[in-house]
Amino acid sequence: QVQLMESGGGLVQPGGSLTLSCAASGSDFNFNAMGWYRQAPGKQRELLAVTWGSTTNIADSVKGRFTISVDSAKNRASLQMNSLKPEDTGVYYCNGRRLRGSRVDYYWGQGTQVTVSS
User: Which residue in 30, 35, 28, 42 sits closest to 109, CA to CA?
Assistant: First the structure.
């Protein structure tokens, strides 16, 4: 049973940088796609970035500032966040996706809080 866990959140000033990490509890990090989501206060969870194979999609709200990376050998995914803005404040979630026949299973971490404030 794969369990994901985010880390690296915290308080950062506008314009600063932060790197979030996502680790898998088991040795298996074989996801068909890996992504990062964010849930701002009072808003729905939004997809920030997703990557599979050589393809990466980045949300317009963070394009050019956020970078997703996956290191399968280390059972780890990362989200590098630069030029942070107060609107980036929220709970960030790691997401792994696996195909299971005709369905896609989503695996989630517990989330890590990122607060951008001066």
Answer: 35
Q: pLDDT tens digit string along 63-72?
A: 999 999 998 7
Provide the total of helices (H) and of strands (E) in the chain, helices listed first: 0, 11
35-63 as b/e: b if 16+ CB within 10 A: bbbbeeeeeebeebbbbeeeeeebeeebe
pLDDT digits (tens, 9 = 90+) for 73-109: 777 899 999 999 999 999 999 999 998 999 999 999 9
DSSP string, 65-105: TEEEEEEGGGTEEEEEE-S--GGG-EEEEEEEEEEETTEEE
